[in-house]
Amino acid sequence: MLAVSEIALRIRPLQLLLKHVVVLPKIHIQGVQLHLCKEKQAPYNFHLWLKRLVGEHTTTPSKAVPPIIIDKIVEQNLDLSIDAQEAPLEKNRFDWKHLTLRKIHTNLAHVTIRGNYLKGDILHLTGQHATLPCLLDHFSTSFVLSPGRLQCQALNIQTSGSKLKGSCTVSYNPQELPQAWIEKAYIKVKLDQARLPAQELGIFIPYFKKHHTTYQLKGQIAGKLSQLALQELQLSFGERNYLHGYGSLSGLPNLQETNFDIQLKHSVLHTKDLNLYIGESPYEQIEPFDVVKINGRFHGKPDNFTTQATFDTDLGTVTTNMDFHIDPNAEVVTYRGSLATNEFALGALLHNKYVQKLSMQGTIDGKGFHRSTAQFQLEAEIAQLGLNGYNYQNLYTNGHFAHEFFKGKLQVDAPCLQLPAEATIDLQAEHIAIKGILLKAALQSLQLTNHPVTLRTHASLALQGLSIDSLQATLQLQQLHVTLQDQLGQLDELQLHMRKEEQDNRSFTLDSELCAAEIQGNFSYKALAIDLKHFMQAYWRKWKHQEPTSRTLNTCNLTYQVHFKDINPLLHVLAPGIHLSPHTTLQGSFEQEGKGSQLVLHLAYAEKLVFGKNCWSNLGLDLTAFQ
After folding, report:
1. Are 91 and 119 contacting, i.e. CB atoms less than 8 angstroms apart?
2. Pairing mode, if any, of strands 259-270 and 291-301?
3. DSSP at 546
4. How far is 563 from 362, CA to CA, in rounded Å?
5. How far is residue 185's CA from residue 148's CA, in Å, rounded to a whole number?
C-alpha cells in the first residue's frame, strides 16, 4: 500500500514536448505512508512495481525513454513498514521482516532517471524506529542504482552514538525476490571511519547488548553477509586495545555461531578489557598477562578456536599452536596443542613466589590457568626454569599437573646438574618427591657451597616446604661419590632427616658410615648459620684484641650430638693434617637470647687426636664459651 498526502512539482510543459531531456526544478512530497507486506510464499506487494522500476538487467542504460533530471526533491514525514506475515517475530534481535520506520525526512539533489538507471545525491536523511531506540540523525551519499547494483560514494551515516564514513557497493540479482537480497546480495564496503557503541550494535547483534564499550573500525569488507572477507582491518576498543589484520567471517548475523579466520599483526590487548567477553572466571586466569602484543592466526568460533600466534605479555613471550574451548556455563577454558615460552614469569601466573621464569617448548593438553584449578598433561623440553632462586637448565618433563599437583618424569641435563628422575610436586602442600640417579651435581655452581664440590649418587628425596626454615625432608643417598679439590670420597649410604614441630622446634639427623649427628631444639637454620658465624668472628676479634661488633641476636636453644664412627676418610680430603680415632662422640648445646650467647662443647673421651704436628691421647674436653 502507498498513500501520499501531498505532492507538488514544478514543470515546464513545453520542455516535455520539445526537449530530449526533461528537467524538473523541484518535487515536494508530504505525508507518505508505504506499507510493504507479503503472505506466505507470495512476494512482497511492491515486487512487480520495483521490478518495473529497475527493469531487466542490462549493462548499458536504456535510450527508449528521455532522461529526467530533478534538481531537488524534498520528502517529509514518510512512514515505512515491512511485514512478512509468515515469518515469526524476532524478540532478541533487529527484526528485518517486521519493521516500522517513522518520521523519515529526505533531501535529494541532482537526481537523474534514465531508463532503468537512477542516480543522485542524498543530502540529508533522518528517521527513527517505531519501537527501538534506533534514531538516524543523518544519512548522506552520492548513489547510482542500476539493475542488480547499488553504488554509494561519500557515504556518511550518523546516529545518536555511531558515526560511519566510507563507500559501499551492493550487487544483487534483480530477478530474485527482495527478501532474498539481504542474505544473497554481495556487498563491498570501504570504511574510512566507523564509531560503533556496543549498545547500538546490540540492536542488530544481541551479543553486544551486555557490553559497555565503543568500537573504532577501519578497513575493507567484501562478500555476502554470511561470508565476509576482511582486508586491512583496524579495530580498537576499550583502553588502548588495537587489532590490525585481515581474514574472513562466516555465519553472521549469529555471532556465537560465526566462524572466523583472522590474521593479526602488531596488535595489542589489555586483559582487563576482556572480562565482558569471556566471563569472570576465565578473566581471573588471564588477568596477570595484563598487556598482550599479538602476531598470528586465529580461526574457529568465539568459544572454540585455534591459535597459531606469538603473544608478548608482561609475564614473558608465549608462542602457541593450540585449540581452545571456552565453556560459558562452567566458565572454564580447555586447551590442547604445542606451546613455547621465553623468559615467562610462571610464578607470577601461578601466584607462587618459589617459581621464577620458564623457557620451554613442548605439548600440553588440559584446562584452566589458575594454579588451584589448572589440570594438564605436559611433555616439554625446558631450556631454563627458576626454582627457589636458582635457574635450572636443560630439563625434560613428561607428566600430569592437576590442582597444583605434578607427577611424571623429570630429567635435568645441565652443566652443573644431571638428573633423570621420577618426580611428584605438590605446590599447594609445598611437597616435592624425587627418585632417580644423580649423575652430577656441582654444588658451588648451584650456589649451595662456597667451594667446588661435585656429587654423584642414587637419590631419593621427600621434601615438604620450599624455604630452608619451613623444610621437612627425608633424603637417602646410595653409592655416594664426592669430589672435593680433586679428591674422591665414597659412601655406601647416607640418610638425612629434617623435621619441624610446633612453633620453631626442629630436629636434624644425619647417619652414614662416617658419622651420625643429631640436633634438636628451638632454632632457625638460616639464623643459626649467621649467628654461629658471628659468634666465631667475635672470638677471633677478641683474640686479636679488637672490640667485637654489637648486634641483636636471634633466640636459639638447641642441643647437639655427633658420633664420629670413622671420619678420617673425609678428613683426609678436607683437612689432611687432622686425624681422629674412630668411635668418638662430641655433644653440647648452644643457647642465645637478646645480646647473650653460650656455646657448650663436651668430649667425654677420644683415644687419639692428631692436629698437624700435635698429638693427644686419651683426650677429654669440656668447653663453655660466653658472649
Report:
1. no
2. antiparallel
3. -
4. 50
5. 9
